[in-house]
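Encode chain A's predicted structure.
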Amino acid sequence: MNKKGVVFLIVGVFLVVFITLYIFFKSSFKKEKKEISSFQEIEGIISPGDSLWSILRSEGVSGRNAHNFLKNLRKVYDYKRKKIRPGEKYRVVFSTNGEIVKFEYIKSPLLSYVVKKTTWGYVSRKIKKKLKKYICGRRGIISGTLWHSMLKADIDPELILDFSEVFSWQIDFLTEPRNGDKFYIVWERYENEGIIRDGRIIVAKYEKRNGRSYTAIGFGDEGGWEFYDVKGRSMRKQFLKAPLHYRRISSYFSLRRFHPILKIYRPHRGIDYAAPYGTPVSSVADGVVIYAGWKGAAGKCVIIRHNSIYTTSYGHLSKIRRGIKKGVRVRQGDIIGYVGSTGLATGPHLDFRIKKRGKFVNFLKLKFPSAKRIPKSKRKDFETVKKRAFYFLGKLISEGSFKVEFENEKGKADFLN
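Encoded structure for chain A:
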């Protein structure tokens, strides 16, 4: 055989070997890939009365394997002492031969505990996902209701409720908003792999089309987060603007009103809020219940003493909330009863009255001071936080809605917390 023939023979042998090896490894890879993809994964939700033992057994895990997995889980999470809760999740992974190879107890989207079975034994670990912090800002114009206008601006419903609560002492969002009013909100948001959690409101502003505006600045720490105006006065006034969400005021405070049932003129020393039967009625301020029961023409009635100056009463209730009785302390916003038409009433409404130093006064004409203001010892900290709030509010007003990473903005404004 000549030299040229030898070269062709060597090349031919090399190609045969290469092709053979390629086919072998390719088929092996496919087989391994098929085995991996055939692993069975089961995910479920913990129900009342479940235990991790019962869950594993119900998924077909042998008693021995269940014992070993739970024994190793206790190295990272003592489920016997801390207990498991309905609504939490779990995940079980089985191998191709039906043996459990992984168990994950999922406490929340951000926290889980995993036990894996390997050729070297069991591995247990705690998995805690970190959320990246963002600062988000949205603005919009009222068209219809605050609720629908803020939803249109892609603001989460829970955040809308927080916004309305911030200004509940300054604005009655059921009756006062007008088309053309503007809202601004800046808040914290935390995200990780599709998980989104809205945090605290940093600053909020509501601007009426008549030019009047309200600005609320969030201030505090983990122990409490309150809202203050630009002068450091609490947004939480001594009294709410109304004791319920009402359709209309059907009768105002008057010293000479024609009574629809008695057909005579006599003083009406309260305000009638017309509202659907069963509408929740809230205490307008902190106080102590001094009367709860039937009170003649007022029907079912609750009277609350707020301090040495003010007392409020809530009449014609269809029902007094369970637990509301003489001597019970209530907080501002606590539900004390429900709208009805008991006593001398033509239809469902709340007869709301307020006394100042023992005399009935017109609630709608009272001006109440702020509940508190920033103490002098915290004033410097508040000014720093206010500077941060105005930075983001200015960014929102000038640039429009935004979402920025907290760390990227940190150097542009003075930050606390």
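The chain has a mean pLDDT of 82.
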